[in-house]
Design brief:
Elements (H helix, E strand, L loop, with lengths): L1 H10 L1 H4 L10 E5 L10 H9 L3 E4 L9 H19 L3 E6 L1 H12 L4 E7 L11 H15 L8 H5 L1 H10 L7 E6 L16 E5 L10 H24 L1
Helix pairs in contact: 4-5
Protein name: AB hydrolase-1 domain-containing protein
Organism: Lentzea aerocolonigenes (Lechevalieria aerocolonigenes)
InterPro entries: AB_hydrolase_1 (IPR000073), AB_hydrolase_fold (IPR029058)
């Protein structure tokens, strides 16, 4: 699928027409999906940088750890990037990364000026494809055997899970966009209909959202508006 989607993206005007002033130095922290690393969002990172944003990875490794610990790490990266760029930043997450980004944004709204979630099961983190849940349970089993750095059973059904599910739909204090696709074979699209976000439909696979030009067409004006609003407010102050 990537072999078809990447050439389509690279030929599309949304990729080719880059205004380096558009982002005005606005910081963006990108959070990868379950089992993926910052490398999985390389195209998004490149697209943002070419338009004058300052993107960085969230530094959560392969995103297979405990939810609460990963949100702690995202919060730390947010603090660092806010200091580097001089003000609140955008959080952009794919799949599980979008859910983690939402938790971090709800916890620290002072650090976030906008939130983007791509194919994220916000309404039910356990509602993903059964194969994904099997992988998560396998990781919890390894954690029980003493393998460090993995989510454990508490992340799937215990106090950690309950606390984070309750926080996952808390009202947001910043603008948010939830991108969903009815062609998503991993996350049922209904689970991405965040009541606190602007929900935008695209026609993409789950893993292909970071490579789909329609996603960038949808995000470009919204990100540019957030950049303009943040820097207009900063200059006015």
């Amino acid at each position: 699928m990537a072999a078809l989607t990447i050439p389509r993206l690279l030929r599309h005007p949304v990729w080719r027409n880059a205004d380096p002033r558009e982002g005005a130095g606005l910081g963006v922290v990108l959070v990868p999906g379950f089992g993926a690393s910052d490398f999985s969002l390389t195209f998004a990172t490149t697209w943002l940088r070419d338009r004058g944003y300052v993107p960085v990875g969230a530094g959560v490794g392969f995103n297979v750890g405990c939810t609460s610990e990963l949100v702690d790490r995202i919060e730390q990266r947010l603090e660092e990037h806010v200091e580097t760029t001089g003000g609140p930043v955008v959080l952009l997450g794919q799949s599980r990364g979008g859910g983690l980004a939402r938790l971090a944004a709800a916890r620290r709204p002072d650090l976030v000026c906008g939130l983007v979630m791509l194919g994220s099961p916000v309404l039910d983190p356990m509602g993903a494809h059964p194969h994904v849940l099997l992988a998560a349970r396998a990781l919890a089993g390894l954690a029980a055997l003493g393998v460090p750095g993995l989510m454990d059973t508490d992340c799937l059904s215990g106090t950690c899970f309950e606390d984070n599910v309750a926080a996952a739909t808390a009202p947001l204090e910043m603008p948010a966009v939830s991108v969903y696709s009815k062609s998503d074979g991993i996350v049922p699209w209904e689970l991405s209909l965040d009541p606190s976000a602007e929900c935008v439909e695209v026609h993409s696979t789950h893993t292909g959202m970071g490579l789909d030009p329609d996603v960038y067409v949808a995000l470009r004006p919204r990100l540019a508006a957030w950049a303009a609003e943040r820097f207009d407010l900063r200059d006015a102050g």
